[in-house]
């Protein structure tokens, strides 16, 4: 899910930027440093939408750098266990398939794909029901439930399932 | 990270911080990101180069999965859903997935049926009807 939250960060600024453009420099640096990053607690920072306040700077001993506490609003994407969302299938293999929901990757293992769907290899690997009515392949849109998340320093990775009511393919690229 | 083990969106356990935070539906994110992208386009020749991969992927995603395109419709969806005493998170899941039946809505957002909350099937049905009307007249 996407959220709009307020975060705080201590920004270090080189003395050469001090002057009337100080604020501008701080904001540009903030965007460069923060947008696109990911933390386990807040998820992916998609975009900064505004700066609430910039506190008083504090000169660092020895370096001359100044630290400013900056409060900013941003759009973040944070997946949760138990959350249901829509995603685009990016890769299919016999172990299951990978899907993407915005910046996050979700793996759905073949144990968590309904039992009546069989893996078909070929140049367009896919999972298909025996009557061929439902097919999951690259670029399909699926609705899935996140059942686990793994967080490392720069990425969040999710495990999902489509073996539940109202989950599964919502859009098949071949029928478009 | 305390309490991460207990995280479960189906029971609305998403942590104090996110529970209080403002959630955004895909269509709202789409408006925000497209606006930001347009601003970038004005200041730089190659805006795609300026944005992070996270931004690019998010923009593609929300464009693909926005149920409502027109900004007025987006505003209406939030207004209508906010009449039903939903948590921010529940509101956005419903706005994103647009379930068609009461059963589906409860499967998508199990927390609306938990004890002590005043959502009977009738209220949910009415809410879904209101939602589909916006879609129809968009």
Features:
heterodimer, A: 176 residues, mainly beta, 7% helix, B: Growth Hormone, Chain: A, 8 helices
Describe this structure in words.
The complex is a heterodimer of chains A (176) and B (138). By secondary structure, chain A is mainly β. Chain A is 7% helix and 54% strand. Chain A contains one helix and 14 strands, in the order βαβββββββββββββ. In chain A, the strands form three sheets. In chain A, strands 1, 2, 3, 4 and 5 form a five-stranded antiparallel β-sheet that branches. Chain A has a five-stranded mixed barrel with strand order 6-7-8-13-12. In chain A, strands 9-10-11 form a three-stranded antiparallel β-sheet, with no helix packed on it. In chain A, a hairpin with a 5-residue loop joins strand 10 and strand 11. Chain B is mainly alpha-helical. Chain B folds into two domains: 24-64; 71-137, Growth Hormone, Chain: A. Helices cover 61% and strands 2% of the residues of chain B. Chain B has eight helices and one strand; from the N terminus they run H-E-H-H-H-H-H-H-H. Chain B has helices spanning 16-20, 26-43, 47-50, 53-64, 71-81, 88-97, 102-108, 121-137, and one strand at 22-24. The longest helix of chain B has 18 residues, at 26-43. The mean pLDDT of chain B is 88. The chains are: A mainly beta (176), B mainly alpha (138). At the A-B interface, strand 1, strand 3, strand 6 and strand 12 of A face strand 1, helix 2, helix 4, helix 6 and helix 7 of B.
């Amino acid at each position: 899910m996407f959220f709009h939250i307020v975060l705080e960060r201590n920004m270090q600024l080189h003395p050469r930027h001090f002057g009337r453009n100080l604020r501008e420099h701080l904001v540009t640096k903030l965007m460069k440093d923060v947008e696109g990053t990911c933390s386990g607690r807040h998820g992916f920072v998609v975009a900064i939408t505004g700066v609430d306040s910039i506190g008083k700077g504090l000169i660092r001993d020895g370096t001359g750098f100044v630290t400013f506490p900056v409060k900013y609003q941003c759009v973040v994407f944070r997946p949760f266990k138990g959350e249901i969302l829509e995603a685009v299938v990016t890769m299919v293999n016999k172990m299951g398939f990978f899907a993407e929901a915005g910046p996050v990757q979700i793996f759905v293992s073949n144990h968590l794909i309904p039992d009546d769907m069989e893996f078909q290899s070929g140049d367009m690997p896919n999972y298909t029901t025996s009557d061929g009515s439902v097919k999951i392949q690259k670029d399909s849109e699926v609705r899935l439930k996140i059942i686990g998340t793994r967080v490392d320093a720069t990425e969040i990775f999710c495990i999902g399932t489509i073996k539940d009511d109202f989950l599964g393919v919502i859009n098949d690229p071949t029928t478009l | 990270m305390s309490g991460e083990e207990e995280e479960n969106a189906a029971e609305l356990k998403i942590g104090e911080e996110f529970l209080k935070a403002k959630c955004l539906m895909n269509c709202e994110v789409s408006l925000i990101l497209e606006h930001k992208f347009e601003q970038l386009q004005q200041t730089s020749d190659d805006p795609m180069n300026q944005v992070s991969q996270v931004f690019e992927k998010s923009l593609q995603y929300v464009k693909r999965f926005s149920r409502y395109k027109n900004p007025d419709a987006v505003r209406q969806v939030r207004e209508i859903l906010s009449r039903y005493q939903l948590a921010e998170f529940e509101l956005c899941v419903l706005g994103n997935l647009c379930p068609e039946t009461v059963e589906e809505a409860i499967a998508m957002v199990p927390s609306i049926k938990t004890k002590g909350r005043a959502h009977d099937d009738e209220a949910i049905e009415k809410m879904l009807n209101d939602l589909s009307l916006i879609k129809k007249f968009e």
